[in-house]
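Lab manual, section 2.4: Encoding a predicted structure.

Procedure: take the sequence of the chain (201 residues), apply the prediction step described in section 2.3, and record the output as C-alpha cells. A sample record is shown.
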Amino acid sequence: MSEASLMDHFERLHASSPDPWGCDTRWYEARKRALTLAMLRRERYRHGLEPGCSVGALSAELARRCDSFTGWDASASAVAHARKRLGHLDHVRFERRELPTALPLAAFDLIVFSEIGYYLDETALGATLQSLQRAMAPAGDFIACHWRHSLADGYRSGDAVHECLHEQLGLTAVSSLVEPDFRIELWSGEASETVPAGESR
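Recorded output:
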C-alpha cells in the first residue's frame, strides 16, 4: 500500500467511526494502555508528545501526567475526535501532521511512539526516528508499543519496528515487556535510576 493510499485508509477509518480500534470498549486496549503508563519512570513530565494519537484514548491518560501535551495524527478526522475528547483542557493540543516532520530541538521529555512504526516505510521510519531523537530532551523518556502479529496494511512487524528502535535511537534501554500480542519498551536519554537493595522510596 502506497503512503498516500495508507493515509486515505486511515482517514476513511476515522471518518466512519469515533473509535475505529475499539479503544474505549476493548479490555485488550485498556490493559495495554495501563501497562504502557505503568512503565513510565516519572510521575509527571514537562512536555509529552504522541505522534499517531488517533482518537486520543491514550492521550487522555498521558495528559494527566504532563504539564503540556501534544498529539499528532495524519487523519483530520482522528484529530477532530481527539479534540472533542480533550479540547476542554488548556494544556493539551492536537495537530494534523504526517511523519516525518521537522521538530523543535530538545522540546519533549516524553515521546510515546505507539502503534505507528509499522505504517512508515523504511525511509520515513528512519527520518522520523532521527527527528524524534533530536526533539527529545537530554534526560527524556521514549516509550514504544506495537502489535506483534502480521498486519495487512503495514510495512513490517511490531518486533521489526522495535529492532529498528534499538539500532537507531542511540538511547539507554530501560525496561521491556514482551507478550504474545504486543511489545512495550522504554528508552531514556539517561541511565535508569536504581534503588539499592533493602531501600525503598
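Check your result against the sample. The chain has a mean pLDDT of 91.
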